[in-house]
Amino acid sequence: MMNVLIISPDKMSIFNLVKFINYLKINNQRSSKYETALWEKLINPLMPIVMILFALPFGFLQQRSGGKFLKMFIGISIGIGYQIINTLFRHLGLLNDWPPFLSSLLPSFLFLSLGIYMIMRFERL
């Protein structure tokens, strides 16, 4: 178990994280850092779906004259913003003792609901 402390939680496998979280809980130690890493590993495969749903409305913007680079810039900026917000919520969750699933799931849920709202808005136009 001591070797696990050398490895950061982001580099541990899901199996090792679950095992180490159980070990920490049995010994009455804080496991929120490792639980957050576990939830992020479980949620990360869904991120491409969220980002695709978020990017779909930008594809519906039909501009005949240019605008492609502006769309790309906006998309890249939103992707970077998503990563920053995701990291921010992870650290805020650790500092404020939020439930680990909430601090991992909230940024994705926010971007997913914003993407669904934008799709519904463009369908009405």
Could you say which overall geometry the principal axes of the C-alpha atoms support?
A: elongated
Percent strand: under 5%
- Can you give the helix content as a percent range? over 70%
- Main sheet record: none
SSE succession: HHHHHH
Structural class: mainly alpha
> Which spans have pLDDT < 50 for at least 5 consecutive residues?
none
How many helical stretches?
6
What Rg is obtained from the alpha carbons, in whole angstroms?
Answer: 19 Å
Mean of pLDDT:
84
Number of strand elements = 0
How many individual domains? 1
Termini gap: 58 Å
Protein architecture, described:
There is one protein chain. This protein has one domain. It starts with a helix and ends with a helix. It is mainly α and about 120 residues long. The protein has helices at about 1-5, 15-25, 30-45, 45-60, 70-95, 100-125. The chain contains six helices and no strands.
Structure summary:
The protein is 78% helix and 0% strand. It contains six helices and no strands. Helix 2 runs antiparallel to helix 3 and helix 4 packs parallel to helix 6.
